[in-house]
Every structure is written in C-alpha cells, then in structure tokens.
Specification:
single chain, about 260 residues, mainly alpha, MetI-like fold, 2 domains, globular
C-alpha cells in the first residue's frame, strides 16, 4: 500500500508536466491535449519573441548578481553559525532561514513599498536585493551542513604545520566545503531563475525577468508558446539537478554524517 501511495503521488506530480510537454508540440494555436500532430513552431517563437529575449537577459543578469552576493554572504553566515561564538544562535539561524516561510505576496509587497520609498521602482537594484534575500537560505543551509561535516582536526593540522588562518581556510577549509558551495550555487540559480511572485511586484516592462514575461504572455495569448518555454525550463532544471546529484552527491547536503 505504501508503494502504491508513492506511485500515485509521483504520478499526480509528474502528469501535469507530461501534459505541458506534449502540448508544446501541438501544430495548432490551441492549447489542446492530446496534440493534433508534432511541430517545433512554438519553440521557434520562444527563441525569436523580443520580450522573451529581453527578459531572458534580465534573468541572467539578476541571477548572476544575486548569486554572486548570496554565495559569499551565505558561506560566512554558515561559518559564523557553526564556528562563531554567537549569542542567540538559534535566533540568527531562524532569521537567515526566515525567507523560506514568508509568503511571496507579503515579501513582494514589502519590497515594493521599500522600492517606492527609495525611488528605485525602475531600477534593477531592488530586484537583485529581493533575489539575494530569497536564495540566501538555500546557500546557508547547504554550506552549513558541509561545515558540520568538516573535521576541525584538519584545520588544526594545517595550523600546526605553519599555515596562517587565511591560508588554512583557502587551502583546507574551502576545498572541503566544495559540495555545499556547489549545491548552494545550484539551488540559488534554480530558485532565482524561477522566482515569480516577488518579482511580479517590483519589476516593470524594462526590468522584468523571464517568469514575469511568461505571465504577461499568458494574459494576452493562449497559444502553446508558454508550454514550449515551460518545457525548456523543465528540461534545463532536470539536467542541471541530475548532473549535480550525480557528481556532487546532493544527498550529503541535507544529511549529517
């Protein structure tokens, strides 16, 4: 019965994806399933639609800047939470992980009010700051587990051999944290690229990212273009996560030894 329940749950989760992928190959401009034939015209439309091209560039810029800021900040936070002499460590941990439980609508409204007060509604800066806040918990969590699994004796051995604290961190600690760093980087990229609710509040026609552009397209058109773009998102995310799990052993990121 347990296996049957798992199979039914997996089917319930994956069948909508199968439907979306199948619809993306429909040759007609109607969202119908099963498709009447096979065509790549909607994938061509995805690649040539100007709004998607601009939004894709914005997504790359925002994600790149957000990850570049969140990765070192999250790494330092994880080291401080595990190794630092912090008072109220649980409070700090809850603070860093709190974006995971804050509703997207509330976060988006808050960033919108902040952007309006600072006069940055037309700037990409607030969008980047929001993405940093949203992906930071994933970086902190991933690196924190790697820090917990790190043997302090290795760092002490490096220090006993004459290594300075910075050299020991760069040559010993940082390489051993690589699985957590790569996992944090992976999840930060995936979350940032797919973030929609908060971005909808604080982006405009010029700064909108790809998920927001997809929503705008759905409001105005009903052809399978969005199914094609969604299929590309699904395929890219699956390949990245599969490769990361195969070569980085993501299971270690969420389990303590």
């Amino acid at each position: 019965m347990l296996r049957l329940a798992v199979v039914l749950l997996l089917a319930f989760m994956t069948l909508p994806t199968v439907v979306v992928v199948a619809v993306s190959f429909n040759p007609t401009a109607i969202l119908s399933f099963p498709p009447a034939g096979l065509s790549l015209r909607w994938y061509a439309n995805v690649l040539t639609y100007p709004q998607f091209q601009r939004a894709a560039l914005n997504s790359v810029l925002v994600t790149g800047m957000a990850v570049a800021l969140a990765l070192p900040a999250g790494t330092l936070a994880a080291l401080a939470l595990e190794r630092g002499r912090l008072r109220g460590r649980h409070v700090w941990a809850a603070l860093f992980l709190s974006p995971l439980v804050v509703p997207g609508v509330a976060a988006g409204l808050g960033f919108l009010i902040l952007a309006a007060a600072l006069g940055l509604l037309r700037s990409r800066a607030v969008l980047v700051a929001a993405h940093v806040a949203l992906v930071l918990p994933f970086v902190v969590r991933s690196v924190w587990v790697s820090v917990r699994n790190l043997d302090p004796a290795l760092e002490r051995a490096a220090a006993s051999l004459g290594a300075t604290p910075w050299r020991a961190f760069r040559r010993v600690t940082l390489p051993l944290l690589r699985p957590g760093l790569f996992a944090g980087l992976l999840f930060a990229v995936v979350v940032s690229l797919n973030e929609f609710v908060v971005s909808l509040f604080i982006s405009n026609r010029v700064t909108e990212i790809l998920p927001v552009a997809m929503f705008t397209y759905v409001v105005n058109y009903t052809d399978p273009t969005i199914a094609a773009l969604s299929s590309l998102f699904i395929a890219a995310t699956f390949v990245v996560v599969w490769l990361a799990d195969r070569y980085l052993d993501l299971g270690r990121v969420f389990l303590r030894r």
